[in-house]
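Hi support team,

I submitted a single chain yesterday and got back a structure, but I'm not sure I'm reading the token output correctly. Could someone confirm the output below corresponds to the sequence I sent? I've pasted both exactly as they appear in my results page.

Thanks,
R.
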Amino acid sequence: MSHEVDIVRAVADLRSRVRYWRAQGLGVALVPTMGALHRGHLSLIAQALETADRVVASIFVNPIQFGPGEDFSRYPRQEAEDAALLSKAGCHLLFAPQVTEMYPEGFSTQVRVSGLSEGLCGAARPGHFDGVSTVVSKLLLQVQPDVALFGEKDYQQLAVIRRMVRDLDFPVSVMGVEIVREEDGLALSSRNAYLTAEQRAIAPALYRTLSATAETLRTSRSPASEACAAAARSLVEAGFDSVDYIELRDAETLASVEFPSRPSRLLAAARLGATRLIDNVALIPAA
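Hi R., thanks for writing in. Yes, this is the structure output for that exact sequence:
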């Protein structure tokens, strides 16, 4: 049932609301976002409502996870529209802090997850996952939810957060939620808005190529490195400007895999103009 979502901007107000819910014996879920919400985000809210009594969504465009020359200044910000979507979806509370609330003067602490943060998107975006780990650790401490939900499109991010929660003993369950796609297969992303009409027509080739490559790896004994190299060439032939990576990794550890014998993920990042698209598909080896 939809209702107008309440908005708080201070950590103290956020904690006060959560304490009130806790006193009533209610369970709490957190859905962290950077706003510019789409159906993928709303699927997280829907899953959160099935999992907990109360749902907190956060909207915070986190400056410390953007590198020099990235799109921090132009990242879409549309709080009013996002709040309306959250209200319709049944979210109970929106935490929308200012940068100074999250990082007050003199802030000097970072959280870093070694290993899982390196390679893949970590290679192309140095320091990105340190910024993600830091802001998510703060949100988990601020809200202290029973469960926090993240989309599987950012699969490396999900793996990093799971490891951070495990290593630091955060009392929270981390839930990954399946990727939501357009009818032509393109994974929903706030950055899809950057694509021109021509680029948007090319973009679905990323999912098609990943799906075909995963099926090849599942049913044959082709080495993953060869199949991934062929997939990268296919993407360039389809119109992508460049491919940052296509790699098969273990679904839990993100270790490189050549011949899959356990659940794995085929992950990719490719560029159309100035827009960097990421996607992944699960690979369960044939019995």
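A quick pointer for reading it: The CA atoms of residues 186 and 216 lie 20 Å apart. Let us know if anything else looks off.

Best,
Support desk
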